[in-house]
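ok so heres the complex, two chains, lmk if somethin looks off
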Amino acid sequence: MNDLNTYLLVAAILFSFGVFGVMTRRNGIAVLMGVELILNAANINFVAFSRFGGMNFDGHIFALLVIVLAAAEAAVALAIIINIYNNMNTINIDEASSMKE
Amino acid sequence: MDNIFINYSLFILFLPLAAFVIQIFFGKKLPRQGDWVSIGAISITLILAIAMFVGMLLDYNPDFRQEASFTWLDMGAFSIQLGFLVDNITIIMLLVVALISTCTHVFSLKYLKGDIRYSRYFAYLGLFTFSMNGIVLANNLISMYMSWELVGVSSYLLIGHWFEKESAANAAKKAFLTNRVGDIGFFIGIMLIYTAIGSFTFTDIFEGVAGGVLAGTTLTLAGVGLFLGAMGKSSQFPLHIWLPDAMEGPTPVSALMHAATMVAAGVYLTIRIFPILSPDALLVVAYVGGFTALFAATIAITQNDIKKVLAYSTVSQLGYMILAVGTGVYTAAFFHLLTHAMFKANLFYGSGSVIHSMHHALHEKNDHETDAQDMRNMGGFREKMPITYWSMLASTLAIAGVPLFSGFLSKDAILAGSLSFAQHHPEHFLLPVFGFGAAAITAFYMFRMMFMTFHGKPKMPELIDDIHESPKEMAGPLVLLGTLSVAIWYTLPHLNPISTHGSWFTTLVHPVTAVVPGSFTAHAIEEGAHHAHNLAMGISIGVAALGIGLAVLMYLKNIISPETWGKRAGFMYDWSLNKYYFDENYDKYLYQPTLRLAKKIAWIDWELYDKYFINGFGHVTNWASRVSGKFDYNIIDQFLVDGVGRIADNFGFMLKKIQTGKLQNYLLYVTAGVIILMIIQSY
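and the predicted structre for the whole thing:
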């Protein structure tokens, strides 16, 4: 229970959920949630390796940095989604495909 | 005063050039068309020249000499030094140029008033003064040659000042081309000297010749080559044909260039190179000069155009100077150059004044047919134009060689030189005969001109009321130069008016022995001339009196009728009147055959060379380029260049399908790509 693999397994499951969410959801907010899951999976890895890899608090600090980054990213992404909604009256990202060739 | 003379002379050289540049670009926009710019520049030049002259007199050093040079072109083994040489000859010559040039500028103010190219005229005068000073100051043959050509150009431009007149345009061309014939000789001479000695500066050349590096026939040829240039510029037989035609230019220009300075450049050149002229070359020089002196004088007798008389008289006087160089008394040549510049420029100003007045009078009468320069329309102007008359009379007395006037002194020196030469070499007795003959004829035709113009009854009485003395801008130079025709200025500090012995000129300009081995020493020449002096003086007074007396009898007292004698002379009169048919014969035997030859060559060039050879090349090139064009279009363009484009196009067409615009598709590609990479890595 107290070894690295358990943490890594949890992080991998979390990552997989995140990727699945990002790839399958049509709702823009849900895609953002998936991204949060991916980031937190990475955070778990950082902290786990920091704890078991004997690297003091380097991982913890990086995790904190990622959390801040995630907050900033969420703010920007939400702003984008609001703009998409304002322009297209939807937040279905499949319909926001005006960039195709 | 180490280099002050060089500095002054640099100012003298470049001020007129500055005036030229200002005038040619801004002349028309300046008030009064900028004539004050030119007058100002030339006046400063004159002041500097006078300052140098006074400096020379104060110094009173016969061996005074300053030289400054710089490297103009340096290509390793081949380098050209240019530079300036200031000695007493240079200073006197600079003063002559500056003085006559200033007089011409002032004279032109009124003479050219209202001319359509007024500012350009002054610009060209500036260019000319610059170039002439360039010749005077050169210490080497190359920069002298450059200025020489510039002088030729300014002469061309000024003769052709009224180029709307066809005769003026033709005269300009004739002057330029005839000079070119001489200049080829000049250039060959320079190259002969350079090949042997390897330098262009006079000092090096004299040293080289003294050391025997250049000797014998080559030296003679080089000397004759250089002299050929002088013959062109100084209008010596047989290249004399351009100078009388050059009288188509404005009269002040004739005074400045075609009487006093430019034509004297040839004499100046022979004076400068005198030390390297071998005895054979000197003989050529002497005969050309002597013959020209007599020959031109015989033409002047029958001319009726007042400027033509003066033009042939100039040719004759230049012949005198050349004769003097040839017989070794080259300081006498320079002395005559100096006195001649004064009195001949004055005679031209006088004729300009008369012509100006005639024009004015004819204009009043609305007569545009009568020739204002023809002496047969003049007569009796003495009362109406006293200043012109008296100053011209002074100059006429000078040119005729009457004692107390300047020409007497210089002519006497030349005649004494040629007489002494003939005493040493009796086989060359013709040289003094040329000299004295020309002296007699000169006295005759000059007084003929004076009598026809100023004395007797007016030949067109209706004009005489409108003949007036010229304005003060024109009278000023006349008075000044008329005064300078008096002997006393040239004999100072002694007051003996019939001998230059001990005068400032003979003291400051003393002859130098030629460096050619076997030449007479300067001392021997001087001694000989001194012995011949009294005899020469006697004969020259005699022949002058003869000429003047004959002119008095024929044209003043009308005791001998010129018409009867003209008829009696028969073919000789015709020959003289028609200038010995030189122009006609040149045309018949020189120009026309050349033209015919040129036409034949042009035919070969056009009909054969152009049509078959050049056009053939054209056809071949045309064909080759058509083949190459096909290859280029079909293979290179269509296949290679376009092929690359088509490949890129196809790939782009295929690849554009994966760009769906759906975010999750892209993410899927990324994830798939990562997974594929991991799989590849794990193997």
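quick notes: Chain A touches chain B through 13 residues (CB under 8 Å). thats all i got rn
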